[in-house]
Amino acid sequence: LERGLDLNDRIGFGFGFGFQVWIWVLGLGFGFGFEC
């Protein structure tokens, strides 16, 4: 049960981190687009 909860926490953190990075990269891409 503990391992299951830990696994869910890791998956949730992975999705949250991946989504944050995707938003950051997308924002950076738009920033460069406006600059050029």
Q: Your description of this structure?
A:
Keywords: Membrane, Transmembrane, Transmembrane helix. This protein has 1 helix and no strands. The protein is mostly helical and 36 residues long. The longest helix has 34 residues. It starts with a helix and ends with a helix.
State the low-pLDDT regions, or none: none
Termini separation comes to 53 Å
Shape descriptor reads: rod-shaped
Helix count, DSSP H or I runs of 4 or more residues: 1
Transmembrane segments: 12-34
Keywords: Membrane, Transmembrane, Transmembrane helix
Please outline what is shown here.
It is built from one helix and no strands.
Question: Could you give the topology of this structure?
Answer:
Elements: H1 2-35
Characteristic key phrases:
transmembrane helix; 36 residues; mainly alpha; membrane; transmembrane
